[in-house]
Specification:
With 242 residues, the protein is mostly beta strands. Helix content is 14%, strand content 37%. Strands 14-15-16-17-18-19 form a 6-stranded antiparallel barrel. A 4-stranded antiparallel β-sheet has the order 6-5-9-8, with no helix packed on it. Strands 1-2-3 form a 3-stranded antiparallel β-sheet, with no helix packed on it. A hairpin with a 3-residue loop joins strand 1 and strand 2. The longest helix is centred in the middle third of the chain and has 11 residues. The model has no long low-confidence stretch (mean pLDDT 94).
Length: 242
Amino acid sequence: MTTQLLFGEIFVVLEKNDKWLYIKNKADDYEGWIDRKMATEISAENFAFLATQTAICIFKPVAECLIKSRNETLLLPAGSLIHSYSNETLMSEIAGETYIFPPDSLMKRGQQPPSGNLIVSIAKSFLNAPYLWGGKTVFGIDCSGLVQTVFSICGVQLPRNASQQAGCGEIVTSLAETGDLAFFENADGKITHVGILIDNETIIHSSGKVKIEKINNLGIISQDTNECTHKLKIIKRCHKKI
């Protein structure tokens, strides 16, 4: 697994076979294979409409919604996109099906840059989620998946991988701020890890699990061994300017 699609994300099909679709995610241009049973085909007109919408999204780690026609429960992770949502009926019509969503789990993605405090607040809701390579949900998430999902909820679309995310925003040369991204390099100097700064001394990141640890000018200090586990490469500010 290289990444995941969340409920409500749209994509273009590039190739088909009997069981699989090779697709490109509209949000971040990430490509990969998915099981074709997991996809719902929509018209080109509907795709174009959804691509221009500012969707409502789920911001709580997990939300329970109802599929109306079958009276069945559907559990959706944070970052799922809810299109054509009605504040009056609490319903959404998606690909011919009616879903009912709990309003206290939904948030409209902002038109203005999010605050660092909002970013950190959303990130903390993932605390203790297990690490999963390619994961993007509280059931399993990797370092760049945590950053991408949290920023997406807050209305900022970032690329999928840490090395790609490091190309966004502005370099922080003075005092870092809450919500800034810290990037870390391996022995070859390649960026392989990312986390969200809570302040100049603490960071939330996914390594083994989502956790909060100390950081200094060298890197992340393990809460278990007190050793430097990730070598700091650069700090970028991506929530105010992309």
